[in-house]
Amino acid sequence: MNVIWDQHPLVVIIFLCFCLLTAYSNHRTVRRFGDYPRPTTMPRVSILVPARNEARSIEGCVQSLLDQDYPDFEVLVLDDHSTDETRDIVMRMAHGNERLALLNGETLPDGWLGKHWACHQLAQAASGELLLFTDADTLHHKTALSESVAALQAEQADLVTAFPLEEVKTWGEKLVVPIMSWGIFSFLPLRLAYKWSLPGLSVTFGQFMLFRRSVYEAVGGFNAVRQDIVDDVSLGRRVLEQGFRWRLLDATEHVRCRMYQSFSEVVEGFSKNVFAFFDYRFLPYVIAWTLMGVIFLEPALTLGSYLAGGSLTEFPPNLAAIAVGQSVLLWYIALKRFRFPAYVALLYPISLVLWLLIVIRSLVLTMTGHTTWKGRSLVRPAMRWL
User: Fold this and answer.
1) Which of 86, 233, 324, 335 has the CB geometry, 3.0–4.6 Å to 340, for a possible disulfide?
2) Is residue 139 within 8 Å of residue 257, measured between CB atoms?
3) In a structure prediction context, what are the per-residue pLDDT tens digits for the chain, which is 386 residues long?
4) Nearest-angstrom CA–CA distance, 284 and 386
5) Is 76 in contact with 126 (CB distance < 8 Å)?
6) pTM listed for this prediction
7) Residue 333 parent element (H or E)
């Protein structure tokens, strides 16, 4: 065992080499909106926006959607029992605008999560051949819809999803929110996911999901994932599992949003999602995040203690310096590509410590059944060891 542990610094460096190769491959694989020729046909698109207490962002979102340069679309907004001015704002905007309609959300039935039920109702009311689900806190460039339809057609895809530009303003947002993009770019080899249709190597963003309606219905839509907290990821995986084609694009120049507005919102939002992304599998979750701590924090701790004149670990300082350099480069690749502040790469140990605390919180809240979102308690899911 000691012999194996003595070799682990070298294993860390080799692992980080593979991560860098994955990030480089993903950088070349993930295409941008705007990389495709104009659509050859213009099928009708239904843009579907669930909204619950979104008064601070709904007007900007809806107006950006109404301003699309695409010729044939409708915008449907469902008010999910908001207690703020969301409904009034949308009603005012819908007056005299045939493209925009406001739906009143029905009572949440047993066995459904709130947003999933809202999206299900929106899809039932939609008239489009294509369905675009997006969030009420997003803003869309006027060509976003036409560019996404062009990508769907050129890639012969059945689902196109995209990285939006995640706006981060507070330090809590800057340190934590980019981890999602970093993790995808560093650990999910998308070229393999495309080639072999591997659901486990896919990720889908609920902020932008453009479906062919026939495929959305074939995979069961939101009805099939009505209790899955990470409904977007689950829908994308179902698309691949059933033999359809999924593509992940870079929409940072066409779609933007501020996912969370404070550190407390960051913590609440990711606490809801992190364990769910692992399908509530206890051992893979614990093992994966323990390894992340060893791989990314031990070299940084070693190098810091060495520079301070001490020695807190047995990781050789020269190898620790190499591993820290690899880690900074790995973070920089993702941050630069997705337009986060690049200097945050130098603070990655702090980011990872904060993230690991959220990881623990997500596990504890799930196990105790205390997970909440937007004022609603979430049903305690069934957990598995493997």
Assistant:
1) 335
2) yes
3) 555 556 889 999 999 999 999 999 999 999 999 999 988 899 999 999 999 999 999 999 999 999 999 999 999 999 999 999 999 999 999 998 999 999 999 999 999 999 999 999 999 999 999 999 999 999 999 999 999 999 999 999 999 999 999 999 999 999 999 999 999 999 999 999 999 988 988 999 999 999 999 999 999 999 999 999 899 999 999 999 999 999 999 999 999 999 888 899 999 989 988 998 898 999 999 999 999 999 999 999 999 888 887 776 778 889 999 999 999 999 999 999 999 999 999 999 999 999 999 999 999 998 888 776 666 666 677 788 88
4) 6
5) yes
6) 0.93
7) helix 317-337
**CATH number assigned to the domain covering 31-164+205-259:** 3.90.550.10
What tokens were used for 277?
Answer: 């992304």
What residues form DSSP beta bridges with 377? 372
Sheet bearing 138-140, strands edge to edge: 138-140, 255-257, 165-166
- Domains of the chain: which residue ranges? 2-26+274-377, 31-164+205-259
- Any bridge partners for residue 257, and if so which? 138, 166
